[in-house]
Amino acid sequence: MDDASFKPSRRLFLASGMAASGALVVGFGFDAVAANEGATRLGDYVAIAPDGTVTIRAKNPEIGQGIKTMLPMLIAEEMDVAWEQVRIETAPADEKRFGAQFAGGSMSTPMNYEPMRRVGAATRAVLVEAAAAALKKPVNELTVEAGVVHHKATGASIGYRKLVSAAAKLKLPDPASVTLKPDSAFTIIGKSKGGYDSPAIVAGKPIFGIDVVVPGMKYAVFVKPPVYGAKLKSANIDVIKALKGITHVFTLQGSGDFHSLQDGVAIVADKWWYARAARDQLEVVWDDAVGAPHDSATYAAKAKELAKTKGASVASNGDADAALSKATKKIEAWFETPFLAHVPMEPQNCTAKVTADGVEIWAPTQAPAWGRPHVAKALGIAEDKITIHMIRCGGGFGRRLENDYMVEAAAIAQKAGVPVKLIWTREDDVAYDYFRPGNYHRFEAAIDGGKITAYKARAVTFARDGKVAQGAGIGPHDFVPLISENYALEQHLIETLIPTGYLRAPSSNALGFVHECFLDEIAGALNKDPFTLRQEIVEAAIASPRPVKDGERGASYQPKRLKAVLETLRTRSGWDAAKSGNGIGYGVATYFSHRGYFAEVAKVKVDDDGNWKVLKVWVVGDVGRTIINPTGAANQVEGSVMDGIGEMMSEITFDKGRAVQSNFQDIPMIRMSQAPHIDLHFELSDNGPTGLGEPALPPVIPAVCNAIFAATGVRVRKLPLLPETLSKAART
Amino acid sequence: MITLTVNGKAHRLDVPEDMPLLWALRDELELPGTKFGCGVAQCGACTVHVDGVAVRSCATPVGSLEAGAKITTIEAIGATAQGKALQKAWLEVDVMQCGYCQAGQIMSAAALLQATPKPIDDDIDAAMEGNLCRCATYKRIREAIKSAAGMALTDTREA
Q1: Is residue B24 domain-resident?
Q2: pLDDT tens digits, A9-30
């Protein structure tokens, strides 16, 4: 690898001429450029400067999940450096060197926990080897503390900063061959470290994608059709060109690729506000007839019709229909979950510069590698001519797994012939989302002799081009096969034009709600405590493990872990003493997703008008033996729980293919006064650590809904949860 | 020409009167700490102080500001006692997830503490309700405000 590429900070800094401008050195997160001066690199992840500063690269995009802080903790731990010596830089997007670089699926921890530690241990090994030569002592007599190598017997010592030049000439050992520390020796892992970028954030320093400034750049808006796939017929481009501050106005043609360019009008201006203001004068005509059949009401009616017939089998065992036909007691229910928008706080944006040499992109993205081929194709440029800088994202929630805005910025910059920062409005962000798809479920359960003798779930979800749409899958989740010996999981699909995608805890964020709420209805039919029923199901799973299919969602499920989580939750929440009634209710739910074992109890309050509030949530989770960064871990769980509650408040509906809602005035989100108390406990089990971006979210929604039932007697089967459905008058 | 007094310094800008203060700050004055979130005063990411009052800069045309109005942004809030205490508390409590809304949160919190040095939980709810945090760091924001005010961190609301 070329050495120059390790210091993108310096290279970009100088090449872009920003040192001269002085006022606004932004966007690259490389604020400590000077500290890196003269640093020597050891491999792709570490460089050590003469002053002892250890620069460590974080390989994955930061979206608020804390990965920029957490991954370097793993390297620093094994290197035996002090955290105060560490400065962190986000790695360039280069999967050949850094492996998979994405933020999604709560995967960063399980994928990187050991590899990053091995990077640290291998780096330490060459430094100690260099120290052995310098001190003329055998390697096995040397110890390291805070970046200083000691020979205890003689008192001799030498710092990493003096060893790095010699160490750089040595060959880094194969990371697979190095020995890792025992957990008992950890000094960084397991200790709370505040977010590395936090001091810059509280001071208002420019570190987000939207803050990127490239010399000579212009600002753009891109007006796309409000109906996906609609075609541009005409636009008053000449009128717009004449408006104040406007430098370029042109159309771009859609590629027909779902993840890439759509038809649209680019308005480029000296400053963003001019482009935004000019847009109000834009008269654009779309051929949007393609959207006509795509209404929320039509979807709902279609779903009800489809659910009357047998769907494609997703999973089954025994004979659920036979058990249902002879059952003494049968219950059934119809559930609906809405489409949802992601709405991360930072509207989508991207900055791009296209020259004869290639394309340089500054993107707040969760998955740069997924955008690269689309940029290449749209611009007719080879993929290896595209440099992508991963810039801190103001939230992701799955939206930034798509890179449509990246392709747009690059295409606009190419056509305009100047560097361009594209910024979407919030209305764009809603209208052009890849929405969490809604879904519909018909449930049936049979009860005989105090047992659940059949469990049948027929889902209606959405398809794109005949295939299950993104985020619309209904895998054979861990617990469905565990509820009853006779089960059937079926799926119908409605073809949709609406782009769909992955929202935090995809699929699970809806399936947790429907299955865990129906399970409470079953508990009611059995006259059984819903907490006890869940514990019995787990006990049964331990007694007779279900056959696990490779690659199946939930295949790694270990019921013993959930058992321990439930036991702790029952005690911590005081479930057995909790009294529901008089508008106060307690509910429980659990859900296994993203390798995390979470169970939660919610306490809610509902007034006579049906206004509901979550007062407190008790959370117990098992994500393995080590909580790497306790403050960050707790923050993720607190956020997941509140995000889940927020998801119960809003919906996106469609009218002829266009989203009806447009901004926060009609997309309610959870706010300060609605934030519940949270009691969090991690159950440590002897398993490798796994991620926390998602698994705490799915259980909270059904826990709250089950608590609402306990408070009001109203079963929640449809979201969003509207007060009028819970008012005194609505209760039967 | 519009004259804006921002963080103690007067600037003359050749911008239209309907340009929102947010964009004058971000793109004209190169003060990008104030964030764009919704453009319609619904999320609070763009909160600044105008004469000490928390204002949504995305919905404040520069032409609507009184002559001599003193604008304070996140870049300068650390020069006030409350702002400095809040920034410190934000780090001690480790409030941030993505951090995008936090400049606005701190500006709203600073206006709260300037008016109400020892806020109770209801005060915090009222002052902070207009500031969305999509990562939902509300528990920590509440704690950080109390920490900055020198109060016990206990959440006294019904549990």
Answers
A1: yes
A2: 332 232 222 322 222 233 233 3
Domain enclosing residue B82, as ranges:
78-148
Q: Do domains A3-181 and A297-340+435-725 have the same CATH topology?
A: yes
The last residue of a domain, from among B59, B76, B93 = B76
Nearest CB to B33; choose among A205, A616, A671: A205
Q: A729, exposed or middle or buried, with CB in 10 Å at 0-12, 13-18, 19+?
A: exposed
Q: Name which of A63, A219, A273 is nearest B98 (Cβ-Cβ).
A: A63
Is the same domain home to B26 and B65? yes
The answer to whether B136 contacts A670, with C-beta atoms less than 8 Å apart, is yes
Q: DSSP E strands: which ranges in A191-256?
A: 218-223, 231-235, 246-252
Determine the residue among A246, A270, A272, A345 to mutate to test chain B binding: the one whose Cβ has the most chain B Cβ atoms within 10 Å: A345
pLDDT tens sequence across B47-57: 999 999 999 99
- For residue A10, the tally of other CB atoms under 10 A from its CB is 17
Element (H, E) at A351: strand A349-355
Interface confidence, given as ipTM, is 0.98
- Reduced to 3 states (helix: H, G, I; strand: E, B; else coil), residue A666 is coil
B26 & B84 share domain: no
Q: What is the pLDDT of residues A286-336, one digit of tens each?
A: 999 999 999 999 999 999 999 999 999 998 889 999 999 999 999 999 999
Q: Of B41, B76, B111, which one is at a domain's C-terminal end?
A: B76
pTM of the full structure? 0.95
Task: Measure the CA–CA gap between B107 and B130, rounded to whole angstroms.
Answer: 12
Interface contact flag, B97 A635, Cβ < 8 Å = yes
pLDDT at A176: 92
Q: How far does chain A reach from its first CA to its final CA, in angstroms?
A: 71
Give the E-state strand segments of A575-695 in sequence order. Answer: 584-593, 596-606, 612-622, 654-655, 658-659, 677-682
Q: Decide: residue B77, CB within 10 A, 0-12 exposed, 13-18 middle, 19+ buried.
A: buried
DSSP state, A673? G
CA B69, B74, B77: angle at the middle one, nearest 5?
A: 75
Q: What is the pLDDT along chain B (159 residues), one digit of tens a residue?
A: 999 999 999 999 999 999 999 999 999 999 999 999 999 999 999 999 999 999 999 999 999 999 999 999 999 999 999 999 999 999 999 999 999 999 999 999 999 999 999 999 999 999 999 999 999 999 999 999 999 999 999 999 999
C-alpha A207/C-alpha A215 separation (Å) is: 17
Asked if residues B107 and B148 have their Cβ atoms less than 8 Å apart, the reply is: no
Residue B18 phi/psi, 5-degree rounding, is -85, 0
Q: Give yes or no for A65 touching B (CB within 8 A).
A: yes
- Give CA B67 to chain center in angstroms: 21
The Cα B10–Cα B4 span in angstroms is 6
Q: A126: Cβ–Cβ under 8 A, 6 or more apart, which residues? A: A42, A167, A168, A170, A171, A172, A173
Residues in Cβ contact with B86 at an 8 Å cutoff, skipping those fewer than 6 apart: A202, B77, B106, B109, B110, B113, B144, B145, B148
